[in-house]
Amino acid sequence: MEFSFILSGLLLFLQPVVSDSSPQITEQELTIVLPEVNHHAFKRGERLEYEVSYGWLDAGEAIIEITQEKEKIAGRDVFHVIGTGNSLGTFNWFFKVRDRYETYVDEKGVFPWIFIRDIHEGGFDLKQYYTFDHFKEKVKTNKGKEYDIPLGVQDMISALYRARALDVSQVKPGQVFEIQAFVDNEVWPLKIKYLRNETIQVDKGDFDCMVFVPVVQTGRIFKKEEDMMVWVTNDQNKIPILAKAKVVVGSVTMEIRDYKGLANPISKVD
User: Fold this and answer.
1) Which residue in 84, 167, 202, 258 is deepest, having the highest Cβ count within 10 Å?
2) What is the mean pLDDT of residues 132-150?
3) pLDDT category, 12, cuts 50, 70, 90?
4) What Cα–Cα distance (Å) separates residue 180 from each residue in 37, 154, 191, 193, 269?
């Protein structure tokens, strides 16, 4: 489970019939004001590819992209985001991973309407299908259960895009941002702490980055907050370039392999 947690969390195959499961809006609910976020961090057609290593092993790859298709849920425009995580090479012999995530993210508010998780890790399989109704502040699961949620709550993938849409123009070292996310049938406060700016060198080149520490569930995967660090481009895209994490046994690194379809120029250092 640790390997897939890193694949999804650092960025962190089903084709849903959106029209059948999307929330039905009543006249009364039209009066509810949904949150809106002013951002230019991403657009349709964006694709980010990462290499994942476990210690000295090339463990796998993670790909996350926004499809080109324009889709609607509850009468609102949405981004369809697909993320996959796969083990590679020798890692397949002792822990094969084939994970797929999908989320339909509100274009104006950057919150999810539908979240799908289909993971296959070693001998463990899990399928989750969440339908968010932000008008009623409820989420329904594929198990038939319903939970209360705060307005604009995130899922584990949409949270990445909400974080990228944060206004960090006046950020100061030590400042903490909090995002509410519904994960495994619970609402969790995901906290991100800004540390500093620095230039980071990876195989793709040198990048001017902002360094963040995700404040995660201490004791579950990580022993302390600083056991995981993420370098994010210091530009309007705010894409993760490098992530390093110390886990219970060993360490995991995720490094950008390629990027396409960015909404803005990237902070690459010549």
Assistant:
1) 84
2) 96
3) very low
4) 15, 6, 9, 15, 34
Which sign does the torsion angle of CA 108, 174, 202, 52 carry?
negative
Q: What is the pLDDT of residues 108-138, one digit of tens each?
A: 999 999 999 999 998 899 999 999 999 999 9
Q: Quick check: 61 and 86 in contact, CB under 8 A?
A: yes
pLDDT in tens, 153-191: 999 999 999 999 999 999 999 999 999 999 999 998 988
**Mind giving me the DSSP string for 7-33?**
HHHS-------HHHHSPPPPTTGGGS-
Which amino acid type is present at position 227?
D
Q: What are phi and psi of 225, to 5 degrees?
A: -55, -45
Q: Is the pLDDT confidence value at 86 over 90?
A: yes
3-class state of residue 176 by DSSP:
strand
Given a contact cutoff of 8 angstroms between Cβ atoms, the answer to whether 9 and 156 are in contact is yes
Pairing outcome for strands 112-121 and 97-106: antiparallel
* Contact status, residue 183 vs residue 189, Cβ threshold 8 Å: no
- Residue 91 in tokens: 């890692």
For 18, the token pair is 């959106």
C-alpha 65 chain-centroid distance: 11
200's enclosing H/E stretch is: strand 186-202
Cα(189)–Cα(166) distance, integer angstroms: 15
Q: Is the CB of residue 67 less than 8 Å from the CB of residue 84?
A: no
Cα 214 to Cα 10, 176, 178, 195, 205, distances in angstroms: 9, 9, 10, 11, 24
Domain ranges of the chain: 2-269
Q: What per-residue confidence (pLDDT) applies to 142?
A: 94
